[in-house]
TrEMBL record:
SUPFAM superfamilies tied to this protein: AbrB/MazE/MraZ-like
Record protein name field: Transcriptional regulator MraZ
Domain SpoVT-AbrB: 5-52, 81-124
Keywords, alphabetical: Cell cycle, Cell division, Cytoplasm, DNA-binding, Repeat, Transcription, Transcription regulation
BP GO annotations: cell division; negative regulation of DNA-templated transcription initiation
Pfam families with a match to the protein in the record: MraZ (PF02381)
Organism expressing this protein natively: hydrothermal vent metagenome
PANTHER family on file: TRANSCRIPTIONAL REGULATOR MRAZ
One GO MF term attached to the UniProt entry: DNA-binding transcription factor activity
Amino acid sequence: MFRGVHNLTIDAKGRLKIPTRHQAQIDKTCAGKMVLSIHPDDNCLLLYPLGDWQKLEHKVSELPSLNIHTKRLKRKLIGHATDCELDKASRILIPATLREYAKLNKKLIMSGQGHNFELWDEDAWHKQIANLDSLSKREEIPTEITQLSL
C-alpha cells in the first residue's frame, strides 16, 4: 500500500525521483514498471504499478462503450496513459503533455492513495485540500464514514 504525502521536485528534464520508502515495494510488485495518466476529474496525474493499472484498465474496458461517462473516462484515463519505468536512479520521466495537463512546475506533491499515487502541483494540492475541507463542511457525512473507528 502506498501512503503518505511527499514534497518532491521535478528536474529540468521532467524526471521525478520516487521516495526511497516506496522504491522496494515498486521493485517487488512491478519490477519498476508503472503507468502514468491524467485524473479524469482533477488536475493531477495518477501513477500506478503496472499490475494495478491493468486491473483498473480491464474494469474500465468492461463498461458499456456507448455510455457518455464511459467514453469520457476511457478517453481521459486510458487515452492519456503512458508506460514508464524507474531508471537506475529510481526516477520516472513525466512527459511534457502530462506535466502541462497537471500544471506541474518544479515543486510537486506525491500523495499515496493505497494502490496508486496522485501527483499534484504543490500550490494546486494545497488549494484542493482547502476546497475539500470547505465542501465537506456543507455536506452530511455518509453513514459508512460515521461508522468508521479511527
